[in-house]
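Hi,

Apologies if this is the wrong queue. I'm a grad student, and the batch job for Tol-Pal system protein TolR from Fulvimonas soli produced an output file that my downstream script rejects. I'm not sure whether the problem is my script or the file. Here is the sequence I used:
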Amino acid sequence: MRTSARHKRLKLKSEINVVPYIDVMLVLLIIFMVTAPMLNANVDVNLPQAQAKSMQDKKNPVIVSVAADGSLYLTMEGSKKEPIDAEALKAKVGAFVKANPEVSVLVAGDREGKYDGVYQVLAELQQAGVAKVGLMSQPQGTSPSDARK
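Support response: The file is valid. Your script probably expects a header line. Output copied below for reference.
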């Protein structure tokens, strides 16, 4: 009798206890169920608005305009807007800025135009040696016809 009782005590149990794994799985399931709706919710953010004043320059700025179709126009020292290509723009503006390093260079992009046109002008002005370039915008509450007057 003694050997059979000893034999039963030494017998190994070959089953896996899965209860702790089920508990962990249920806790993770609850965490994901609670956090998933929060990840998809959009949050409305009211950004601050500023009433920026226009820059006052002593000299007339150089204005490079990019039309909706991608064509370039140059306005220098209050003269009329003249059509220009990219290579002539680099040469003309580069020479003018070297002669007058204090002058402002502004890029005016059409609202209906592609951003790529403005980006290309910025890259060309950088290659021409222009250190600072500003972007022009329309003041809030005015139409483009008001700005031309």
